[in-house]
Amino acid sequence: MTSNVLTSEPALDAPLTFSAFRGGFPALRAQTYLSICDKMILHRRVRAAVEEFLDRLEMASVNRVQHEQRVASARRKFARLMNVAPETIAAIRNVSDGTNSIAWALPWKAGDNVVLTSDCEHPNNIYPWLRQRRRGLELRVVDPLPDGSIDIDALISAIDGGTRLMTVASATFAPGHRTDLRALGEACRKRDVFLLVDGVQTAGIMHHDFSIEMVDGFATSVSKGLLGLYGFGFLYVSPKWIERLEPAYLSRPAVVQKTDDHSTMGEFDYEYQPDSRRFEVGSFNLAGAYAADASLDMLLELGTENIEKHVLQLAAKFHDGLCELGMTPAVPGRGPKQSHIVTLGLINAGGHGFSTDPTIQPLSEHLVERKIAHTIRRGQMRFGLHAYNNDADIDSALSAVREGLQRIKSGSAS
Ligand SMILES: Cc1ncc(COP(=O)(O)O)c(C=O)c1O
Hints:
Elements: H1 3-7, H2 18-23, H3 27-30, E1 32-33, H4 44-59, H5 64-81, E2 89-92, H6 95-105, E3 113-116, H7 127-133, E4 138-141, H8 152-157, E5 163-169, H9 181-190, E6 194-198, H10 210-213, E7 217-221, E8 233-237, H11 239-242, H12 286-302, H13 304-324, E9 341-344, E10 350-351, E11 354-355, H14 360-369, E12 372-373, E13 375-377, E14 380-384, H15 391-410
Parallel strand pairs: 1-12, 3-4, 3-5, 5-6, 6-7
Antiparallel strand pairs: 2-8, 7-8, 9-14, 10-11, 13-14
The chain binds pyridoxal-5'-phosphate (PLP).
Residues 94-96, 122, 124-125, 169, 173, 198, 200-201, 221 line the site of pyridoxal-5'-phosphate.
């Protein structure tokens, strides 16, 4: 008898089905996890990869170049996930690292502008642009639509002769609408405007194909849907732009090297890497690379087209169930703006972790009691789904919401 039978867990090399994938997350035995918009949970294969890294460190059994093969491997796998060439991907730290890298690399001229909907962006994709105002950049802020989503037409109309870059989230962190990257990509490409995407909410969960979406830059950490660790991420940069971008920071990985001698300085007259590696800086977060390399294997095996289909079906079921309970989710349950994110309550009725809505706050407290993991962002109750979720999770969440609403109505909620 194998230990897998004893623990009733799937073997590490079993073919990966959605339910086998689910079985690898210990956190799911303790709670109904609907909070991927906040942070990842750890799959035991990812944990095993990090332990392999630690074992190698402990025994000093591998040198740095050998460790860095995991960085190269993770880069290749992320490129495959997004259907682009590996050379277009840089290993970075997080979204902020990627957005700031692009902000400092574009050759701004006085009077240039950046178009964005600050109301729909995470602060880490606003501060980098506010910083550039000190260098003469103008920010063109476009209002969201009344439903809280990004107004694609208004963003395109805001482009003028001075626009160098537009930035959007692939799905907003709240309310959670998905953004039509194809429409924006086409419009930006025609006008030679750099389309930079903060992709952390959708990477690994929604299907992306940069050859169709025509984005010029895409920054993500692996700490949400890519199911890795904090402090590691990827930056995609389209080959169309690379020669026009000068990295703000420079160290060995970003420079063409004529030898493998890592400690010898090359020519003073250096050349940037001809690809996205020009945005890599110094030593890598190797634990993060081992983790991402392992999680990407599973995401590739499941396939993001399948993951998206699975997750959107669950989101539609959750949406419909909430409507039956008299709630009105902010993101539609079907159509192009639907995502893996389901939010309840009015945007900005409260803030990070609290709501001023007389139903949302006690309902959230009830869901915490019932171990339904979720978050409150911008005052909205927020749920996020991934490939490991199933119908039973949606049933548990709906039953907890039903019970919570009854308690609130009867005045017995805490
Ligand atoms: C849309 C979005 N962008 C960025 C971040 C975080 O940025 P970083 O990866 O730089 O920490 C979050 C985190 O919640 C987010 O939801």
